Amino acid sequence: EVLLGITGKDFVLTASDDTCARGIVVQKRGEDKSRALNKNNLMLFTGEAGDTTQFAEYIQCNTQLYRIRNGMDLSTRAVSSYVRKELATSLRSRHPYTVNLLIGGVDPKTGTPELYWLDYLSSCVKLNYAAHGYASYFCMSTMDRYWKPELSVEEAISLLKKCLAELKVRFIGNLPNFVVKITDKDGIREIEI
Questions:
Q1: Can you list the positions of beta strands (E) in 39-144?
Q2: Prediction pTM value
Q3: How many Å apart are CA 94 and CA 91, to the nearest integer?
Q4: Which keywords does this Swiss-Prot/TrEMBL entry list (predicted)?
């Protein structure tokens, strides 16, 4: 499973493969491995099938409950802190969630993009670009070479295409389709590449 995230000048570009697999068997294609937490925050998830769905829905519902109770949305940083706390609590239980996440968002007032990388051990790091799964072996060097702080949307899409091309050449698994989304101050939208 592959999750990729790239921050740009005023947006976050994310991509996830649309394959649901267990071991060497592809069970389903067309799976969207992301959840919109609010208008400007998106969470991508990967891991054990039941854990990912249950945890993603739990986080999505609780961020919406926070908005209803308090009349405002959580910031990207606040969402990542909340998710990290929930993963840490789960880790100390008898049945921890095995979920890896990317949380991307943009502050609607300032337009500042943020991308957080979280793993199943509740590590949380703010990064300019990130990857989960086998993609990190192949794509991190490409993102490291071509990423820059003032990346435009076109440049970020070009960088993402380079990463996906690298996966097609070097990775033994067949990941033909990706769900690509852009999060900016106007909201979340899916794009075709």
A1: 41-47, 99-106, 113-118, 124-127, 129-133
A2: 0.92
A3: 8
A4: Cytoplasm, Nucleus, Proteasome
Element (H, E) at 177: none
- Domain range for 114 is 3-186
Burial 121-158 (b: 16+ CB within 10 A, else e): ebebeeebbbbbbbbbebbeebbeebbeeebeeebbbe
**Mean pLDDT, contiguous 10-residue spans, the chain (193 residues):** 92 89 69 90 91 93 95 93 95 92 91 94 95 89 92 94 88 79 93 89
13 and 5 Cβ atoms separated by less than 8 Å: yes
pLDDT at 14: 95
Q: Looking at residue 26, what is its pLDDT?
A: 66
Total domain count for the chain?
A: 1
Spatial distance between the Cα atoms of 176 and 168, rounded to a whole number of angstroms: 8
Strand partners, 51: none
The answer as to whether 109 is a domain residue is yes
The two tokens of residue 7 are 């921050």
